[in-house]
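Sample 1 of the test manifest.
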Amino acid sequence: GNSVTQMEGPVTLSEEAFLTINCTYTATGYPSLFWYVQYPGEGLQLLLKATKADDKGSNKGFEATYRKETTSFHLEKGSVQVSDSAVYFCALSYVKNSNRKLIWGLGTSLAVNP
Amino acid sequence: AAGVIQSPRHLIKEKRETATLKCYPIPRHDTVYWYQQGPGQDPQFLISFYEKMQSDKGSIPDRFSAQQFSDYHSELNMSSLELGDSALYFCASSFRLVEQYFGPGTRLTVT
């Protein structure tokens, strides 16, 4: 079946450090891939997405590339800020029986220190 | 741009009480989804509605029910509340099976 494996946290970085959060998936067919972010006490916000192989999603300095050959969608940011402290969820979306389904990773908590 | 609206944002109930959560999807979105997120966990899909009909069902307890009304808003009714029902409840909406947009969530605390 479809699944998402996300690197475990917590991840602690200093401001301006480089961030990578690994996400790999297993899926049949051609799913779409997403990164959602959840700031403390808030809801889930779509950070970026990619709908087909080799697509690169980007937003707010974050990037992720849909790699079919390695079944990965790693999240990267060149220089993190304290305001990036949040929980990041990788998710896979596909359609089954005319229903759109979302498979979530377990989330990676990021803490950025000044 | 309009977003998904959920109310209330916070709710405190006692065990065995009933709670009703409301969700107002983005205008013209035809599908509503409900999720439950326990502390430190990923969201768990509960149920979805397409054009006011139940379209998919996940791990929704029998004590919970939901419906979507003619104006497309949806309500999640939770009865005989248990301590373990304390969680964040998210509503999401989408149009024609495109990506889901999430509301801010309702934090339910059962004491």
